[in-house]
Design brief:
Two copies of one chain form a homodimer. Chain A contains nine helices and nine strands. In chain A, helix 2 packs across helix 8. With about 210 residues, chain A is of the alpha/beta class. The two termini of chain A are about 15 Å apart. Chain A is about 45% helix and about 20% strand. Chain A has two domains: about 140 residues, P-loop containing nucleotide triphosphate hydrolases (Rossmann fold, 3-Layer(aba) Sandwich), CATH 3.40.50; about 60 residues, Guanylate Kinase phosphate binding domain (2-Layer Sandwich). In chain A, the strands form two sheets. A five-stranded parallel β-sheet of chain A has the order 2-7-1-8-9, with helices on both faces. The first copy, chain A, has a four-stranded mixed β-sheet with strand order 4-3-6-5.
């Protein structure tokens, strides 16, 4: 079997990321409601399971030594340690889901997204941008009452955020959750319509005749 | 001024093409109704103006010698001769409209689209595919009652159409006009959200501060 064809026939890995506080979680939840066919990537963690949580649904709950083995065996698309606990994205779950032709969504911090990009560059990387970046000029300059220090520090933050975007395929402003979701849905639709994926599908069909 | 930034800040040239009879005209008309902000690229022609037609609206009506000069001076993105008359896409109209930030749509035969791609590779090239390509397998094999010749000739046509797709960025099946339009709208939305265009916009804003 042609490897390239079979890869192009898979689902898409959609990576939704952006600066903290931008509303990734809210947009991701709304998007999943809007597109129930999207499969949410379940993270692995070493933290204790909480009441109401289910293994394999909220997280894959792991012992620390198992988690460290997953890191060692390159079984995680990304991982990080927060306050003594490990969190990561199991490669196997993503791979298996994509192989069924379903799209997977991964909602993740910027540092994690950069790790995923290293290991899975064919993903669709979407940067969720703060709405105030949209009014960059007026925000930075203000009403003429801002000190030079304020203007400079706002400028520095804006520049940092813009440089981050360079690692992504798309930039979506989160000005309104439903608008942001509609834009992401358009991106997913368009990615599926890309020539390479479509030709691969037709070629596969012809082969099967 | 940074040339790259200014180009990325322009509108998109959307080229809608596909095999004859696929319904390009119908889809294009429906799309323009759905997206009134899309500017339709007006062709130049040497044919006689007809009652009810307006110069600059239906066509730019040209004398043959003026048209030949436009070819000579590379002022057409593509051109062709049909039954003694010349038809072509004036580069100037497209360029000026894109410079205002508006998107332009060009509905055109496959040969013309290939010419446009040579001169304007940054366009968004969309191949409108016949709906029966979607049911490729069943159509080619039929109900087991097809002769080998029929199967082979259907296979040949399908393969030709698929090879054509390779020159485009996207493939949209025209199974239903409203679905095809929605897909094209998603493509245009997604193209505007591409990182390079977004970063260029933000960088321009920062520069203007």
């Amino acid at each position: 079997m042609n490897k390239q064809v079979s890869e192009l026939d898979q689902g898409l890995l959609v990576v939704l990321s952006g600066p903290s506080g931008v509303g990734k979680g809210t947009v991701c939840a709304a998007l999943r409601e809007r597109m129930p066919e999207l499969v949410y990537s379940v993270s692995a963690t070493t933290r204790q399971i909480r009441a109401g949580e289910q293994d394999g649904v909220n997280y894959f709950f792991k012992q620390k030594e198992d988690f460290l083995k997953m890191i060692e065996n390159d079984q995680l698309l990304e991982w990080a340690e927060y306050v003594g606990n490990y969190y990561g994205t199991p490669r196997e779950f993503v791979k298996k889901t994509l192989a069924t032709g379903k799209d997977v969504i991964l909602e993740i911090e910027v540092q994690g997204a950069l790790q995923v990009k290293q290991k899975f560059p064919e993903g669709v990387f979407i940067f969720l941008a703060p709405p105030d970046l949209k009014e960059l000029r007026s925000r930075i300059v203000g009403r003429g009452t801002e000190t030079e220090d304020t203007v400079n520090s706002r400028m520095a933050v804006a520049k940092e955020e813009i440089e981050l975007m360079d690692n992504y395929n798309y930039v979506v402003v989160n000005d309104q959750v439903d608008l942001a979701c509609a834009r992401i849905e358009s991106i997913i639709t368009a990615e599926h319509l890309q020539k390479d994926r479509q030709i691969a599908k037709y070629r596969k069909w012809i082969k099967e005749v």
